[in-house]
């Protein structure tokens, strides 16, 4: 299971769900626009466990790493010739 806290800077992912038992985080995150199906791009990660800055729905948001650990995501892939590649790394144009 891939969580938002383990995604590399610059990658785009799609939010799938929130982990079970994360009710307190879930309500707050839903109110900020983090809903299932939304595309999220990791902009930066602060060193030493600091905030993770993400972009979604046309705005930027900083999240605590503890919040990101409760967000289940999947990578976004496209077809590039005969390979499945990350949406950000397709060179087909």
Automatic annotation (TrEMBL):
InterPro entries for the chain: Fe-transptr_FeoA-like, FeoA, FeoA_core_dom, Transcriptional_repressor_C
Domain of life: Bacteria
Species annotation: Candidatus Berkiella cookevillensis
SMART domains for the chain: FeoA (SM00899)
Keyword Iron (UniProt): yes
Keyword Iron belongs to the record: yes
Domain Ferrous iron transporter FeoA-like residue range list: 2-75
GO molecular-function term, one example from the UniProt record: transition metal ion binding
Protein name per UniProt: Ferrous iron transport protein A
Pfam families the UniProt entry points to: FeoA
Gene this protein is translated from: feoA
Keywords: Iron
